[in-house]
């Protein structure tokens, strides 16, 4: 009978053998691939799927060595952030977002927040591009790059005024079985929910699939009949929007 990941880890705690270690890697590979799949790879020779999976496996093995079987916490929950952190550390080491895009990222966040207030809804891509005085092609390229950058920045403070308020704290429930699958029910979360209510129906669906259903960019693309690049652009814009909402909230509070 095949053992579950938790059963394999429990057995490893009692008798740490190479065979069990390899079995754990095999059983946990779907989790690693799910985490990797939620981050659009930057277009470099150092960011192939196997490179990111290798980084994730390194995080998995670190989690395995630090896991305490006597504590009442499931291994996949314990390992999730170590796997994700290992992948993100690797991506940060090869991050090549152009300086111009870094500047536009900050401008886009401000423009989207301002247009939301002025229009009372989520602005269209062409409206944001016009305000930024760039072409739609440039804006969509920016969003694709920002999707990666925003994911790498999820654990950073939402603004300099709120060092303890992180975007990931408002999107992900760190205590849940699937940490990215719930939005935390706190005051700042209510502000995020208000921002989400102003999104278009398709964007709300993508957000739900990405965070609640834990689908990868490719899976969402296939489900909605869009390209993975387009889904990446939409997620990038959503992350900018939500981070901007938290920044505005910190100013208003």
Automatic annotation (TrEMBL):
<feature type="domain" description="RNA polymerase sigma-70 region 2">
    <location>
        <begin position="25"/>
        <end position="93"/>
    </location>
</feature>
<dbReference type="InterPro" id="IPR012845">
    <property type="entry name" value="RNA_pol_sigma_FliA_WhiG"/>
</dbReference>
<dbReference type="InterPro" id="IPR000943">
    <property type="entry name" value="RNA_pol_sigma70"/>
</dbReference>
<dbReference type="GO" id="GO:0016987">
    <property type="term" value="F:sigma factor activity"/>
</dbReference>
<dbReference type="GO" id="GO:0003899">
    <property type="term" value="F:DNA-directed RNA polymerase activity"/>
</dbReference>
<dbReference type="InterPro" id="IPR007624">
    <property type="entry name" value="RNA_pol_sigma70_r3"/>
</dbReference>
<dbReference type="Pfam" id="PF04539">
    <property type="entry name" value="Sigma70_r3"/>
</dbReference>
<dbReference type="Pfam" id="PF04542">
    <property type="entry name" value="Sigma70_r2"/>
</dbReference>
<protein>
    <submittedName>
        <fullName>FliA/WhiG family RNA polymerase sigma factor</fullName>
    </submittedName>
</protein>
<dbReference type="InterPro" id="IPR013325">
    <property type="entry name" value="RNA_pol_sigma_r2"/>
</dbReference>
<dbReference type="InterPro" id="IPR014284">
    <property type="entry name" value="RNA_pol_sigma-70_dom"/>
</dbReference>
<dbReference type="InterPro" id="IPR007630">
    <property type="entry name" value="RNA_pol_sigma70_r4"/>
</dbReference>
<keyword id="KW-0805">Transcription regulation</keyword>
<feature type="compositionally biased region" description="Basic and acidic residues">
    <location>
        <begin position="171"/>
        <end position="187"/>
    </location>
</feature>
<dbReference type="GO" id="GO:0003677">
    <property type="term" value="F:DNA binding"/>
</dbReference>
<dbReference type="Pfam" id="PF04545">
    <property type="entry name" value="Sigma70_r4"/>
</dbReference>
<dbReference type="InterPro" id="IPR013324">
    <property type="entry name" value="RNA_pol_sigma_r3/r4-like"/>
</dbReference>
<feature type="compositionally biased region" description="Polar residues">
    <location>
        <begin position="157"/>
        <end position="169"/>
    </location>
</feature>
<keyword id="KW-0238">DNA-binding</keyword>
<dbReference type="InterPro" id="IPR007627">
    <property type="entry name" value="RNA_pol_sigma70_r2"/>
</dbReference>
<feature type="region of interest" description="Disordered">
    <location>
        <begin position="157"/>
        <end position="187"/>
    </location>
</feature>
<dbReference type="GO" id="GO:0006352">
    <property type="term" value="P:DNA-templated transcription initiation"/>
</dbReference>
<keyword id="KW-0731">Sigma factor</keyword>
<feature type="domain" description="RNA polymerase sigma-70 region 3">
    <location>
        <begin position="110"/>
        <end position="180"/>
    </location>
</feature>
<feature type="domain" description="RNA polymerase sigma-70 region 4">
    <location>
        <begin position="195"/>
        <end position="235"/>
    </location>
</feature>
<keyword id="KW-0804">Transcription</keyword>
């Amino acid at each position: 009978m095949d053992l579950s990941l938790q059963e394999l880890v429990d057995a490893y705690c009692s008798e740490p053998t190479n065979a069990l270690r390899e079995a754990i890697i095999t059983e946990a590979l779907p989790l690693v691939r799910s985490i990797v799949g939620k981050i659009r790879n930057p277009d470099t020779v150092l960011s192939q799927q196997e490179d990111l999976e290798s980084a994730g496996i390194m995080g998995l093995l670190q989690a395995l060595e630090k896991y305490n079987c006597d504590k009442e916490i499931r291994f996949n929950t314990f390992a999730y952030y170590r796997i994700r952190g290992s992948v993100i550390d690797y991506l940060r080491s090869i991050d090549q977002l152009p300086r111009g895009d870094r500047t536009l990222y900050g401008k886009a966040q401000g423009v989207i927040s301002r247009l939301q207030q002025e229009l009372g809804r989520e602005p269209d891509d062409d409206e944001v591009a016009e305000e930024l005085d760039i072409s739609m092609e440039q804006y969509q390229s920016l969003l694709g790059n920002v999707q990666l950058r925003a994911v790498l920045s999820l654990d950073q403070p939402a603004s300099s005024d709120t060092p303890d308020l992180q975007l990931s704290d408002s999107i992900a429930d760190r205590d849940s079985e699937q940490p990215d699958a719930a939005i935390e029910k706190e005051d700042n979360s209510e502000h995020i929910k208000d921002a989400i209510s102003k999104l278009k129906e398709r964007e709300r669906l993508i957000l739900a699939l990405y965070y609640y259903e834990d689908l990868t960019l490719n899976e969402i693309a296939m489900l909605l009949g869009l390209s993975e690049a387009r889904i990446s652009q939409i997620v990038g814009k959503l992350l900018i929007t939500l981070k901007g909402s938290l920044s505005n909230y910190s100013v208003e509070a």
